[in-house]
Amino acid sequence: MRPSLNLRAALVSLLLLGVLLLGWYVATLPQASKAVNVDPEYAALMGGGAVKKSGMPTPAEVGHTLIDKLAHPFYDHGPNDKGIGIQLAYSLARVLGGFALAALVAIPLGFVVGMSPIMQRALNPYIQLLKPISPLAWMPLALYTIKDSSASAIFVIFICSLWPMLINTAYGVAAVKRDWLNVAKTLEVSPLRKAFQVILPAAAPTILTGMRISMGIAWLVIVAAEMLVGGTGIGYFVWNEWNNLSLTNVIFAILMIGVVGMLLDALFAWMLRLVAYNE
User: Fold this and answer.
1) Residue 158, Cβ neighbours under 10 Å: how many?
2) Phi and psi of 50, rounded to 5°?
């Protein structure tokens, strides 16, 4: 029997992973010290006349770090030595805080913009002016006014999460079928009830798509923001390990960033499927 599409995709994915790991392994293979004219004493320290081609850690070294770090993810040995679980928890707390604030502002405002052509034309210049500004450009202003690094990072997440949610909500609300709105008007449905029982269910997939985009951007931005403000978080962890010249820990952190980002995206993909199914 022919394998299913999912099985074939999984096999191709594993094959690509194998090729990637093999290329990584070959790139970090040690080579003879004679071939590269390395000092004999240094070569002896490196294991009998062989040195690595580059300073990149091998897949085995990263794998060992992965097991070691995940075995004790929540240890706390001081400001600069916390487990990866604690660092990710700080980052997630900031992302969720800024994301929730953005949702509280963007979704109601998106309803207003989507339902009112006047408000759409009035607010569109401000949206188009502020939307292209890099979220990190707001960091100095946030640090000066808020005077708290963690709150400033939350503000930056709020800014970067705001626009995709706002624009998608406005588009989803404006795209609701006019027939449905006319029926609600004929039945003299109140504006609040119309918003919750007619417009929101119809616009929900588009709103969730905007929230999904916002979450992806927020998780990208928090790493850079924490590199700037320092203290705690996965971004600070990456920067601190780079300063310690620990590329193994840097690669481990990059993998953790990718895994958490994938899980967050999968959560919103599940909610989108749930909304589509209920329709």
Assistant:
1) 23
2) -130, 135
Interval 254-277: pLDDT, tens: 999 999 999 999 999 999 998 877
Which residues touch 101 (CB under 8 Å, ≥6 apart)? Answer: 154, 158
Beta-ladder partners of 52: 30
> Residue 201's domain spans which residues?
84-278
Domain match, 188 and 115 both: yes
Helix or strand or coil: residue 76? strand
Whole-number pLDDT of residue 36: 46
Under 8 Å between Cβ of 223 and 235: yes
Any idea what the CATH number is for the domain that residue 187 is in? 1.10.3720.10
Q: Is residue 35 part of a domain?
A: yes
CA distance 142 to 158: 12
This prediction has a pTM of 0.84
What's the gap between Cα 99 and its chain centre?
11
d(CA 202, CA 61): 51
Residue pLDDT, tens place only, 52-101: 555 788 889 999 999 998 998 898 887 778 889 999 999 999 999 999 99
Q: Give me the number of domains the chain comprises.
A: 2
What secondary structure letter does DSSP report for 4?
A: P
The 10 Å Cβ neighbour count of residue 6 is: 8
52 in helix, strand or coil?
strand
Number of Cα atoms under 13 Å in the Cβ half of residue 73: 13
Query: Among candidates 213, 199, 206, 208, which has minimal Cα distance to 111?
Result: 199
Quick one: 142 and 196 in the same domain?
yes
What is the C-alpha to C-alpha distance for residues 279 and 202, in angstroms, rounded to an integer? 8
If we measure between CA atoms, which residue out of 155, 98, 166, 158 comes closest to residue 126? 166
Does residue 47 share a domain with residue 103? no
